[in-house]
Design a protein that fits this description.
The structure is a single chain. The chain is an alpha+beta fold. The protein is 30% helix and 39% strand. Strands 2-12-11-4-7-8 form a six-stranded mixed sheet. A four-stranded antiparallel sheet has the order 1-3-10-9, with no helix packed on it. Strands 5-6 form a two-stranded antiparallel ribbon. Helix 4 (213-223) packs across helix 5 (225-249). The longest helix is centred in the C-terminal third of the chain and has 25 residues, at 225-249. It is globular. 23% of the residues are buried.
Length: 250
């Protein structure tokens, strides 16, 4: 039976022509503690070619790291009577809290624009899923503004020469996460591309969790929101009163 299984596996591998991606990440769990200033995530792995060829000599690699998605409303500011007020707004159903793409070469040298849009190989291709009546020009303006805002907050990133392929088999990419990342499951998708076509993909997950005092605060704010709010107000009033008395004594 053992010899038969080995024979079957041998035939399967012989019939496999496309490369196999074996991805890994340096941390499968990132713990957010008090004083957390961000971290750097190493995404690495191997490109295995069943035919025994050196895959890295032929294939490009693109890595896309996405954080949990959430609905979001974007408001546009307009100047009225000398002050800035809220004007138009747009709702999006699925906005990644974090998005980073890294590749071995510039995306335009690897795939065409249609393929890049399908696999979200760039911040301009993020599928935001707008809500309501869609005005193409307005949605494009709001989407560009959202991406620009997230980019300035270091939550959206592009590095089109960030993937290093060594020994024509191994690859690695480094993506930094800022201190403002939210908790949840982050997905790291790796794509092997040749001739403008995605021929293999694989995924690895990373959990960002709060621990210690931050975890307890988050738990009580969600499970006991009313009591948490009253305590927060009481603490603010007490500290304000105490500061006032202190300055009155000076």
């Amino acid at each position: 039976m053992r010899a038969l299984l080995l024979l079957v596996f041998a035939f399967v591998l012989m019939g496999q022509r496309d490369p196999i991606l074996v991805p890994e990440v340096s941390q499968h769990e990132i713990q957010v503690r008090q004083g957390f200033t961000g971290t750097e995530l190493l995404l690495f792995g191997a490109i295995l070619d069943p035919r025994g060829l050196q895959a890295g000599n032929k294939y490009d690699i693109v890595v896309v790291l996405k954080g949990p998605s959430q609905p979001l409303r974007i408001r546009e500011k307009a100047r009225f009577a000398g002050v800035w007020v809220n004007a138009d707004s747009s709702d999006f159903r699925s906005v990644p809290s974090f998005f980073a793409v890294s590749s071995s070469r510039p995306i335009q040298d690897i795939v065409d624009e249609k393929t890049a849009a399908i696999y979200e190989f760039g911040t301009q291709y993020i599928q935001l899923s707008p809500n309501g009546v869609i005005d193409v020009e307005q949605q494009s303006r709001f989407a560009s503004g959202l991406v620009d805002l997230k980019t300035r907050q270091e939550l959206y990133k592009e590095d089109f020469q960030g993937v290093k392929i060594s020994e024509q088999v191994l690859y690695q990419a480094r993506i930094s996460l800022p201190s403002s990342v939210i908790t949840g499951t982050y997905t790291a998708e790796t794509f092997a591309i040749t001739g403008g076509r995605v021929i293999a993909s694989a995924q690895a997950d990373v959990e960002v969790v709060k621990v210690g005092f931050e975890k307890q605060v988050t738990y009580y704010s969600q499970q006991w929101s009313l009591i948490y709010g009253l305590l927060a107000v009481a603490l603010s009033v007490t500290m304000g009163w105490g500061a006032g008395r202190l300055f009155a004594m000076i």
